[in-house]
């Protein structure tokens, strides 16, 4: 079955950096677009970034220029490099893949931005 396992979250000061990872299994990773979403307390889950099978990327306006999504097809892993973090970036970050009509989510990794 499809499994997505995120890691790399933690506590960071404003202006700091983190790199999230999402290891995928049960899919033909190189054929699927991968996405990152986030959800802050009391807010809806929101799109953060997407990378196509060919490496084309797109970002939410709120993270453009600060976050970079990338993928390593040999490792079945997608990454989210987050720089210049702000308190409003604090959330649980989720990895997502859509296979045909089914959406799959990881368990999430907590990112806390605080001094």
How would you describe the overall organization of this protein?
The protein is an all-beta fold. The protein has strands at 3-7, 10-12, 18-25, 34-39, 46-51, 57-59, 67-72, 77-82, 91-99, 102-105, 109-113. 0% of the residues lie in helices and 53% in strands. It is built from no helices and eleven strands. Strands 2, 4, 5, 6, 9, 10 and 11 form a seven-stranded mixed sheet that branches. A four-stranded antiparallel sheet has the order 1-3-8-7, with no helix packed on it. The protein starts with a strand and ends with a strand. The protein is globular and about 40 Å long. The mean pLDDT is 96. Strand 5 (46-51) and strand 6 (57-59) form a beta hairpin.
Low-confidence stretches: none
Average pLDDT metric:
96
Number of strands: 11
One letter per element, helices H and strands E, the order comes to EEEEEEEEEEE
Question: What fraction of the residues are assigned to beta strands by DSSP?
Answer: over 45%
What structural class do you assign from the helix and strand content?
A: mainly beta
Count of discrete alpha- or pi-helical segments spanning 4 or more residues: 0
Q: Please estimate the helix content.
A: under 10%
**Rg, alpha carbons:** 13 Å
Amino- and carboxy-terminal Cα gap: 40 Å
Biggest sheet descriptor? 7 strands, mixed
Shape: globular
Give a summary of the structure in a few sentences.
The chain has strands at residues 3-7, 10-12, 18-25, 34-39, 46-51, 57-59, 67-72, 77-82, 91-99, 102-105, 109-113.
Brief descriptors of the model:
115 residues, mainly beta, seven-stranded mixed β-sheet
């Amino acid at each position: 079955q499809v499994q997505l396992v995120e890691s790399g979250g933690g506590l960071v000061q404003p202006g700091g950096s983190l790199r999230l990872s999402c290891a995928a299994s049960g899919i033909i990773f190189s054929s699927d677009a991968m996405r990152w979403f986030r959800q802050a307390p009391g807010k809806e889950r929101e799109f953060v970034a997407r990378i196509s099978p060919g490496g084309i990327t797109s970002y939410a306006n709120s993270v453009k220029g600060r976050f970079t999504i990338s993928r390593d097809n040999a490792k079945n892993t997608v990454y989210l490099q987050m720089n210049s973090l702000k308190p409003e970036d604090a959330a649980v970050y989720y990895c997502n893949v859509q296979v045909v009509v089914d959406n799959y989510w990881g368990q999430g990794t907590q990112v806390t931005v605080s001094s």
